[in-house]
Amino acid sequence: MPRVLAIDLGTKRTGLAVTDPLKMLANPLETIETSTLLDYIKAYLAKEEVDTLVLGLPIRLNGKDNEMTPKVMAMKAKLEETFPNQKIELIDERFTSKMAMQSMIAMGSKKKDRREKAGNLDKVSAAIILQSYLERQ
Predict the structure, then answer these.
(1) Has this prediction a pTM greater than 0.90?
(2) Could you give the number of structural domains in the chain?
(3) Phi-psi bin for 95: left (phi > 0), alpha (psi -120 to 50), beta?
(4) What is the CATH number of the domain that holds 13?
(5) Residue span of the structural domain in which 19 resides
(6) Considering the chain, what percentage of its residues have pLDDT values greater than 90?
(7) How far is CA 90 from CA 48, 67, 76, 79, in A?
(8) What is the pLDDT of residues 85-118, one digit of tens each?
(9) Closest Cα partner for 54 from 7, 18, 114, 97?
């Protein structure tokens, strides 16, 4: 069964998460350099069946765009062009970084580890975005 891949786009790093084959659970996958995102997805799609790419849409609390919104929309356009067979979905990502940090604290991650492993925060944020998407389906 095809999976769903979630993307938490950042200016430097991008967090990725993927579902299990039954599309029930979201699992953190990887944190990569944003500049390598399209190549990473191409390689991932060559080895795994994915039918949907979920892209976190950053918006302000008042519902207006923030400074990352145009970058996410540009990435959505690139994804649609590069991967025409995949459905591309946008999902509100407000509070995901805060929720990811709280999850890491709840799991016992020490403050030093959270600081040193900022990449963990990105992929956990992607997993939260993905889980939110799954719950809305």
Answers:
(1) no
(2) 1
(3) left
(4) 3.30.420.140
(5) 3-136
(6) 61
(7) 21, 16, 8, 12
(8) 999 999 987 655 555 455 555 556 655 554 445 5
(9) 7
